[in-house]
Design goal:
The chain is α/β, with parallel strands linked by helices. The chain contains five helices and four strands. Helix 1 links the parallel strand 1 and strand 2. It binds nicotinamide-adenine-dinucleotide.
């Protein structure tokens, strides 16, 4: 462990899944010293992962839907108020449906795009002002592009 994220604050969406990428990422960031906010739509899972994180670092858990920009704005607000800013965003919330092309109902298509694509967009929109705030202190808008962790894994499945 090298504490590479000591003093940093991270927000990881979709981190409730017990064997998911979000939980693993949140735990890895916490082990490296970051304070972490996680979100998911499954309340019990949020609670469980926050307990795990709190054994390692400071953590906040919020039940929030990435499709709802107001909810994500509130998550960012709560994070910056509690931890003093936001340095890292990891967009993991997403879903996939293993349905054959000809059988995909329109509602399922809309759901996958709403969560994976629009949810990633809205969450990023909600977080960027706080991310810019941190990086403007370093007068480095261009370094934001390098430093911003925009892990859009759900997009790989579209
Ligand atoms: N696991 C892989 O190998 C892999 C590879 C490429 C892409 N992906 C994609 O990356 C994403 C994450 O993968 P995973 O394995 O961690 O999936 P996962 O199903 O284990 O976790 C996804 C989490 O997102 C949450 N979520 C779903 N809809 C949400 C919403 N509207 N708002 C907030 N949270 C929501 C779920 O409750 C779940 O906890 C998925 O979209 C997946 O399709 C996964």
């Amino acid at each position: 462990m090298r504490n590479r994220f000591e003093g940093k604050v991270a927000l990881v969406t979709g981190a409730g899944s017990p064997r998911g990428i979000g939980r693993a990422t949140a735990l890895a960031l916490a082990r490296e010293g970051a304070k972490v906010t996680i979100t998911d739509i499954v309340a019990d899972n949020v609670k469980r992962v926050v307990s795990e994180l709190e054994e390692i670092s400071q953590a906040i858990g919020e039940v929030a839907d990435v499709r709802n920009k107001d909810q994500m704005v509130q998550v960012v607000k709560r994070t910056t108020e509690a931890f003093g800013g936001l340095d890292i965003l990891v967009n993991v919330a997403g879903l996939t449906r293993p349905t054959l092309l000809l059988d995909v109902p329109e509602e399922e298509y809309d759901l996958v795009l709403d969560v994976n694509l629009k949810g990633t967009f809205l969450t990023t929109q909600a977080a960027v002002p706080a991310l810019l705030e941190i990086y403007s202190h370093q007068n480095a808008r261009s370094s934001l592009q390098r430093a911003l962790w925009w892990v859009a894994l759900p997009l790989l499945r579209i």
